[in-house]
Amino acid sequence: MKKWLRVFSFVLVVVGLFAGYYVYSMFSFLGSVNANKPFSNGENLLTTAKWEGTEQVNILIMGVDSRNKDEKPRSDTMLLASIDPVSKQIALFSIMRDTYVNIPDHGQHKINAAFANGGPELLIDTVQQFLKTEIHYYVATDFVGFAKIVDAIGGIDVNVQEDMIHADDGVNDINLRAGQQHLSGYQALQYVRYRGGVRADFDRTERQREMVKLVVNEMKTPSQLIKLPTILKEVKPYVQTNLGGDDLFKLAALGLKLDTANMKTEQLPQDDALSETTNMYGEAILWPDIEATRSFFHETVQGGASTDTADAGTAGGGSRQTTTQPQESSQPQTPAAQSGPVVTVSGEYVNLRTKPTTDSAVIGKVYEGQDLTLIEKLDGWYYIKTPDGMYGYVSASLVTE
């Protein structure tokens, strides 16, 4: 009996030491990635919501292309994970990087420019405004960090649907052959970066959602959970997040219960809520039907009827609409939405601003006699569209209806 007690005591000590090391590794990881902010410029405040543990939680995952040190990095990948703690359902949305939206204090740009202008903080503000939802947590990593994550779990099995060949800079070239194979971190990075093929970025975001699903399923296995301290140590230098210790434990406990096999994976804006066009500078953009995109997002996370984009006739190069209907919204309308009240500039010139305040940034000017399309009236301000396609706020006192 004493022998068994000694054995049992030894086992308890070993388990206690391992648990202590496990907890220490988590807190050490979070302390480092919260203090280290390689992607923030310090100009924007973080405006995430507090998660109590029982309501829907939204996590924004940002993949950053920071290879060119002479340029501001943009968010090459934007994935929004929405988790319901009650139903244990998870929905994963990839946000198309060329989506043309209003970026707070910067006017209209492709959504990936938000990260370049204000880091994770400004991108979070932009997504919250775009989708009318709250973001609770974010995780940002660059190309190296993503490859390290995949390598840390021992690689990932993927069925590559086609040959993927693309010459880049000699270091980040893409060279994958079609077929079922076990990808290293470097190869997995090639897989999610490739933009060739007929559907280009649409297929790429689909592969990114697929990769996240594969990694999440792998991370739930007992062998990977045991390796978690080693995995965290490997990726620590390449990750930035606002997750705290309590947050991570709550999410980890929830993650083990999630129905990842039935994870919903969707694209935002969905194909029937976007128009492929160009902006006033000749850049190729995706112009969203904002209200339709918001409705689709909220219906999906609330368990409403939704169809994966791969099943909606898009995988075979299905058609996308070229126009959308006018919306009563303080965000951009489609180029086709030309109808609406017209106001005329009465002052010599009027500043076009990002917000309805005199201390907000000036993004352009409109001049006496110009006709502007009125979108929305606010207290002393009009939200308008100029003849050359810019949107912004003008003082109501300097225009006439």
TrEMBL record:
Keywords: Membrane, Transmembrane, Transmembrane helix. Residues 340-401 form the SH3b domain. Residues 303-341 are annotated as: Disordered. Coiled coil: none annotated. The keyword Transit peptide does not apply. It comes from the Bacteria. InterPro entries: LytR/CpsA/Psr_CW_biosynth, LytR_CpsA_psr, SH3-like_bac-type. Residues 303-313, 320-341 have a biased composition (Low complexity). It holds the Pfam family SH3_3. The chain crosses the membrane at residues 7-24. Belongs to the LytR/CpsA/Psr (LCP) family. This is LCP family protein. It comes from Tumebacillus lacus.
